[in-house]
Amino acid sequence: MRNPGEVHSGCCGSLISRRQLLASPAVAPLAARTWAAPPEGARQPLVRKPLRVQPVLVYQLYKRREQTSWRPWGGLMQERDVAAEKERIGKELDQMRASADFPLEILGLETATSAAEAAAIAGRQYDVALMYAASGPGQAYEAMNAPGKWNIMFVRHRSGPVYLWYEIAHPRYLRKTVDEYGEPGMDWRDVVVDSIDDLLWRLRALAGLRNTLGKRIVCVGGASGWGKGGQQAPYLAGSVWKFDLQTVPYEELGARIEAARRDEKLVSRAHAEADRYLRQRGVRLETDAEFVRNAFVLNEVFHALLAEASTDAITINHCMGTIMPISRTTACLPLSLLNDEGYLAFCESDFVVIPSGVLLHYISGKPVFLNDPTYPHHGVVTLAHCTAPRKMDGERPEPVRILTHFESDFGAAPKVEMRKGQVVTNLIPDFRARRWVGFEGEIIDSPFLPICRSQIDVRIKGDCEKLAQEMQGFHWMTCYGSYLRETGYALKKVGIDWLVV
User: Fold this and answer.
1) What is the C-alpha to C-alpha distance for residues 327 and 307, in angstroms, rounded to an integer?
2) pLDDT (tens digit per residue) in 393-438
3) Fewer CB atoms inside 10 A, N or C side of the chain?
């Protein structure tokens, strides 16, 4: 358990004293910085790093020897076979570049015929080695498996000349000629046969993980975790996900809001944006317009915090009460607006679930919906919260009613009418960051129950009773589309088990 006088800081999950934190300029909290309104139209750029992939054709040519076995399986026997294969791989890499719906940088194709050549390549700067395992010694593939990098082995069956390692990838490389897996960080999921699509979804997963690890997040009111089980959540966010958590105390937020209110240009701009928002097609106002205008002023303050921290992620602690008298509205609408712009914005600062939101956002390339789940029954579960994005598909805004925040009956909160018939991915993180549960569902209704404003009934595409049995943690994360494969693949790389129900 953490001592009361300790705070989590930085991306390594370390615990340092509050005195050390305040004394170190490298980890000075954002509260120590001076308020400055962002210039009109200026925004912190979205942060999405490309996944750098190094393709490597590993092969070896063999000479005939009389009256003995001299060649292994495989279709690359002469230099002209290698030249043709390099051309084939180049065309496939071009196809992947064109098809990828995530930032992808594919480096020039390299070749390795020995462990020494493979080791030299492994020392370069990239995220993923894509090993075309035509032939060659096992030591070459082991040399490619460098610490801090990921590896995918591609073998051919029908997509070109058959590869030797189509036969022996499992027993020799993964299992080292015994029954147990023996190659660090790799298992059966890291071998792809023939399919470019199977390569792409794995790379999509790793691109999501690449952008999740080390993520800097502004934490207004500090980092937290839901319930007794979530007390260690900020620490786990550092130790497992390497998050860099930057705290802004509420006293500082209040000072920033007051400074923003004194900025006539900022207020005028924010009010004009609020009025334009309310005139948009599909927007219905059912609360006091002043709450909405205050929300757009608060949105400017959040943008300034993001710019100062050089990040695009923010979370609000104590959003069920503390922020309301300070901002004269609720954080619900500003968080919704930020998510629609492509930022990551979460309520409650619950770092049990926030890692799943960051990962799912970067895998899908879409906004995500942090929600309160209910009890699964008869194949259906209701999910609700007051901060849903409108652009759940990343492009088209859904219709929305702007109401009060439900529990307080105050402020401005969106009731987003999510699309019926839409397939959604649902992630259920556990308190201890050991095993997540996931399932695919379909939105069947967007009701108006006396609960959090944005609410959906989801048909469970799986075992409802198993879901009820395996529920853990509290908050869930939801997004449009199907991303269970990618999520499970990414979780394996950080040592978290995965169950699909």
Assistant:
1) 20
2) 999 999 999 999 999 999 999 999 999 999 999 999 999 999 999 9
3) N
d(CA 307, CA 74): 54
Q: Which of 33, 90, 1, 37 is nearest to 297 (CA)?
A: 37
Nearest alpha-carbon partner for 112 in 144, 76, 79, 80: 144
- How far is the C-alpha of 402 from the C-alpha of 286, rounded, in Å? 6
User: What are the pLDDT digits (tens) for 224-277?
Assistant: 999 999 999 999 999 999 999 999 999 999 999 999 999 999 999 999 999 999
**Bridge partners of 292?**
none
- Give the residue from 51, 393, 361 showing the smallest Cα distance to 207: 51
Average pLDDT over residues 372-398: 97
Domain end (from 160, 187, 209): 209
- If you write DSSP's letter for every residue of 465-486 in order, what string do you get? HHHHHH--SS-EEEEES--HHH
Find the CATH number of the domain harbouring 186: 3.40.50
> How are beta strands 476-480 and 369-373 bridged, if at all?
antiparallel
42: pLDDT confidence band, cut at 50, 70 and 90?
A: confident
Q: Which residues contact 83 (CB under 8 A, 6 or more apart)?
A: none
* 471: nearest Cα among 364, 360, 353, 316: 353
* Other Cβ atoms closer than 10 A to 100: 18
Which among 167, 192, 209 is the end of a domain?
A: 209
Q: 479-497 pLDDT, tens per residue?
A: 999 999 999 999 999 999 9
Q: Please indicate, yes or no, if residue 236 is contained in any of the structural domains.
A: yes
What letter does residue 154 receive in the DSSP assignment? E
The pair of three-digit structure tokens given for residue 126, joined into one six-digit string: 């990239």
Pairing of the two strands 15-17 and 6-8 = antiparallel
344 strand-pairing partners: 313
pTM score: 0.91
On whether residue 23 sits in a domain, the answer given is no
The edge-to-edge listing of strands for the beta sheet with 344-347 is 244-248, 216-220, 313-316, 344-347
267-270: long-range pairs with CB below 8 Å, 24+: 267/297, 269/40, 269/300, 270/296, 270/297, 270/299, 270/300
- CA 84 vs. chain centroid, Å, equals 38
Cα(13)–Cα(10) distance, integer angstroms = 7
**Claim to verify: residue 333 and residue 195 sit in the same structural domain:** no
Contact in structure between 396 and 453 (CB atoms under 8 Å):
no
311-366 residue pLDDT tens: 999 999 987 778 888 899 999 999 999 999 999 999 999 999 999 999 999 999 99
